[in-house]
Specification:
Two copies of one chain form a homodimer. The first copy, chain A, is mostly helical. In chain A, 59% of the residues lie in helices and 12% in strands. The first copy, chain A, has six helices and three strands. In chain A, strands 1-3-2 form a three-stranded antiparallel sheet. In chain A, helix 4 (62-69) crosses helix 5. Chain A is elongated and about 65 Å long. Chain A starts with 16 loop residues before the first helix and ends with a helix. The interface between A and B is large, with 66 and 66 residues. Chain A binds a DNA duplex through residues 10-11, 13-14, 41, 45, 47, 61-63, 71-81, 93, 95-98.
Amino acid sequence: MEREKYEERCDEICVHDEVVNSVTEEMPEDEILYDLAELFKVFGDTTRIKILYVLFESDMCVCDIAELLNMGQSAISHQLRVLKQAQLVKFRREGKQVIYSLADDHVRTIINNGMEHIME
Amino acid sequence: MEREKYEERCDEICVHDEVVNSVTEEMPEDEILYDLAELFKVFGDTTRIKILYVLFESDMCVCDIAELLNMGQSAISHQLRVLKQAQLVKFRREGKQVIYSLADDHVRTIINNGMEHIME
DNA sequence: TGAACGTATGAACAATAATTCATATGAAAG
DNA sequence: CTTTCATATGAATTATTGTTCATACGTTCA
């Protein structure tokens, strides 16, 4: 194993090898955990949470969202891009406008769970 | 209302006042949305996700966690502090050691929901 | 009490990310 | 096709955040 830099483990008493080893086996791939963190990072911004909440209520064009959140069109557009990449929203063109909507119900589920936690 | 800076709304066609107004009413308080984003921000870091995942399997002291993640004790301690403040983990002292564990089942629920999304 | 050990904390630095500004793209209407 | 309008994008700036290093704190054991 490549445990070179942090051999500073607390001696026998503290590190319970059995536990450490068995947990190591149960851990998902690093890449999955990375993706998971990336997903939550997307939810971890007030502007994006607001956008998602707005889309809960109704599909909407970029301009409507900007108006609603009292923010610049560019800022919203940048954040919609992030949400799009995370597959949390989808969009369709209607003439000059681009209408955004929630990608699926996971979004609601995840946000509702978070809401439950902070409401405790 | 204080919509001065962003009167740059796209003309009549785009902004559907009825929709905007009704959605505005449905929106939770700004403070709640802020707290929600703060919560997800905590999940939005690989190190913290890993710590939580490790604690899924077993309560553990700081040193064990650092060993498991092959990271410095200080870094882990700092992140545990963040997790503690978000009430996602709790701790108890056992002699010289401090044993951390998950605060409640919301943590599992939230992480599992996120997992479902990325596994699609 | 004093030494040793596990953990916590503050400051500093490096890395990331959000917003703004200016401008580009692409559809629609004349 | 040219202009207009809605949206997208790149660069720059500012703000935020994670890790490290050094050190302090609090238990335990001699």
